[in-house]
Amino acid sequence: MSNPKYKGYLDRFAMLVKKKRIDVAILCGGYTNLKQPEKSEAGTMADYLKPLLGEGVRIVIEDRSRTTPEHFQFAKGLIDFSPENKIFIVSDSIRFFKIYWMALHYWFGLNKDEILAEWLKVAKQLYSNPKKKAIDIELKDMKRFLAYKNVKIVVDKLHKGYKEAIHQLVSEVFEIEGLYDPKVMDMSLEQTRVKEEARAKFGLR
After folding, report:
1. pLDDT tens across 32-53, in order?
2. Where do the domains of the chain lie?
3. pTM of the full structure
4. Are the C-beta atoms of 187 and 174 separated by less than 8 Å?
5. Range 147-165 burial, b when 16+ CB lie within 10 A, else e
6. Residue range 70-116, pLDDT digits in tens
7. I want to staple 65 with a disulfide (CB 3.0 to 4.6 A). Which of 70, 91, 195, 205 is the partner?
8. Taking a C-beta distance cutoff of 8 angstroms, is the pair 62, 74 a contact?
């Protein structure tokens, strides 16, 4: 793992797996690196995590997905959603809204209005704390409320910069609206392809 930023991310993931005594880890990510087409994101993560997690954790690789919606689509069939199972989704610090929406859409079948109602509950919990002014809400406040039934989102501090946040603000509008409009989804997928080609051309991956 040559990127220290993502190495730290995976190290924290391994610590979470051990702390929560998770016995199955599903890693999502397809063959998106055009400079290394034989390696999937999920496979690369698995290679790094196997010695950290040990034999007590079963690693499942989902390597078809290219986008966040596809992560949820393809992972669904690999998960046992029985109520007695605790399911954790690890999200970075700028994608949690999109992650929350995708989970409710793909895994629980909620429609737009139902998802908005759930998000309103989250917002009310955040803003009802008398000790917190709206401007003082931090990521740690959000972590407590991002849950639905037996699924909980764990927010990691991977990204801290404004550049990443701006990129996600733009992309998540298309990815969420694409759930309801195939044309928008096609536009989002095309933009993903163009982005990856540009990253490969300029040596960013």
Report:
1. 777 778 899 999 999 999 999 9
2. 4-160, 161-205
3. 0.85
4. yes
5. bbeebbbbbbebbeeeeee
6. 999 999 999 999 999 999 999 988 888 899 999 999 999 999 999 99
7. 70
8. yes
